[in-house]
Design brief:
By secondary structure, the chain is mainly alpha-helical. The chain has a domain of 88 residues. It has a two-stranded antiparallel sheet with strand order 1-2. Helix 1 packs across helix 3, helix 3 packs antiparallel against helix 4 and helix 9 packs parallel to helix 11.
Amino acid sequence: MIGDAISHAVLPGIAVAYWLSQSRSSIWMFLGAATVGVLATILIELLRKRLKVQSDASIGMTFTTLFAIGVVMITFWSDSVDLDQECVLYGEIAYVPFDVWMFHGQNMGPKALWASGILLCSIVVYLLFGYKGLKMTSFNEDYAAVLGIGVGAWNLSLMSMVSLTTVVSFESVGAILVVALIVAPAATAYLLVEKLGSMLLLSAAFALIGSLGGYTLSKVLETSIAGTIASTLGALFLLVLLGKTVVSKQINTYGLEGEKV
């Protein structure tokens, strides 16, 4: 839900960045969105930690307020700003190959591919070095505090990485697909495994299957790429959930030895 909040909350940052620069350059959009994304993270943590507001309430209040401000800004500047909130929500993956990085006249490939690749490497390094601290502070804050682990610092770093992931990704895929890719694969993997390490690997596999399958299906059906990928991820979750339910009922009915209870 933090990812959902940030993906919507960055809208005013995008609007202000465009208004100040009068450019749709990725760097300005990124700086504006990243600034507001970090601000949203700090506000959520401030409401939750310092003012003792419930987590769901702090997330809801932060992202709805910032998103509403962004919509008002775009509407107010509609005459001078060639920007639509729908481009942030839905994105357009089909146009990604056309926005390329030119280096000394050489086509280096899509900018989104480079940005996503750097983001992937950053996240892998972050997880490798911070796995134990993240695991401890995410699931047992009190015990981590007793051991002298900086819970606040780890939580802020995690939320910052979520913010960075959202900001880098939404330009090409849109906020809705960003949320789907953050939530659905992990939720699906959690139905099958309990160990955190295994869940991380399995969720990445489900994300890859859903993305490739959804993209292929969108081409066949000639539908929205982002919408089809999100729907495919939802279908995978539903299939795994139904499969697990059927297996659990069979085990409860016949027992592990195959004899009816």
